[in-house]
């Protein structure tokens, strides 16, 4: 066993290396071999999932080729999306999908009526039933799918958009649609993006949030209901870690684990029983220690540090701890403004909300789904029954259950989200501080190991101390 005195020089070396290697990209020391973080994404009536091996799988409605396997039929069971490999992220729009590959290229498939596939074409009956690369777009680090428009974040902090623009959701200063990627003017230093039905969001590296597009319900959070064709800052909100956009409302997750909401409250989706519209952010008091948020059309989800899931908003196809989970003959329940835990779920590591269905990924890699199922988007092998409580998604050909690969639980200090705390986390925090690779969402919240609601040199020192103490106890 090493003593503390013996380990002190090692800790100094670790810290010095982390600071001195500021110009070195993480990939140069991350080790060999490719592994993606499993994730799920819900569209209007279909679902897309990413396995740890970088392959993509889809199920549900396929009228516009959303399943990506070369056909455009009514409903498809779970199936592998060919062509794609080395994928690091997926996103689902209303009836189309986006995938980001490890090499920074972006691939799309599904409906292309408004040019949301970004290939320079569009048309009333236009669609692509197999993935194709978005031309002229490289160096991308994040993707987001709005209802009928798409967003991409480049490594240089710029945002690129394409698709429908009738309400200014592209942020280009006008309402002209674009079937090819164009840069959002004047928007720099961006760390994360999100797309709603007709509005868009960006989180800057400084923790401020920006929005543009439709604002008829105050969903842009600028204290007005004026449509914005260029980005405007969300009023009075700072220290943001992640964001989500619903149909006509917006969610923000702060570094301190609180959730804030604004926009339409017609279905209680902003968690407030006293108002129909709120054009400025308001905290949802019932939620704390949250690490992820998801916005459906009129319902919302939050994931807590302890792996529990919270649900609120429209309950037409959802019931919390429903006694009759199949909902075959249930009357339409009233909206639930107060977030309630989904009792059947635990050990969850990722969440997603489709238009009217919800998804949760467990630590063991299994996927759970509930809500609307007319189009088979729950992956249950049937379309007749909606599900008011979570059910396991079936595997390929209905055999066994889908497994995306193990996903580690939330752990303070684990900025790389790999289930352990080591020098890689110091390097990730270093890159965030220097702005070379900003952290967002659960990774950013995990990096705040001190609980000071900021990421700075003290965060690195605290991770160093954790490594030191762990080594001393071996």
Residue share in helices?
Answer: 10-25%
Average pLDDT over all residues: 90
Topology-level CATH name of the largest domain:
Methylamine Dehydrogenase, Chain H
DSSP, total strands: 28
* Low-confidence sequence ranges: 1-14, 17-32, 320-325, 327-331
* Number of helices, counting only DSSP H or I runs of 4 residues or more: 4
CATH superfamily annotation of the largest domain: Regulator of chromosome condensation 1/beta-lactamase-inhibitor protein II
**CA radius of gyration:** 21 Å
What is the first-to-last residue Cα distance? Answer: 6 Å
Structural class: mainly beta
Largest sheet: 4 strands, antiparallel
Query: Number of domains in the coordinates?
Result: 2
Q: What's the CATH first level of the largest domain? A: Mainly Beta
How much of the polypeptide forms β-strand, as a percent range?
25-35%
How would you classify the quaternary structure? single chain
Briefly say what this structure is:
This protein has 474 residues and is mainly β. It is built from 4 helices and 28 strands.
Descriptive key words:
four-stranded antiparallel β-sheet; disordered N terminus; single chain; 4 helices; mainly beta; 11% helix; Methylamine Dehydrogenase, Chain H; 474 residues
Walk me through the structure.
This protein is mainly β and 474 residues long. It has two domains: 4-31 and 414-439 and 453-472, no CATH class; 39-398, Methylamine Dehydrogenase, Chain H. Helices cover 11% and strands 34% of the residues. The protein has four helices and 28 strands. The strands form seven sheets. The protein has a four-stranded antiparallel beta sheet with strand order 1-2-3-4, with no helix packed on it. It has a four-stranded antiparallel beta sheet with strand order 5-6-7-8, with no helix packed on it. A hairpin with a 3-residue loop joins β1 (39-42) and β2. α1 runs antiparallel to α4.
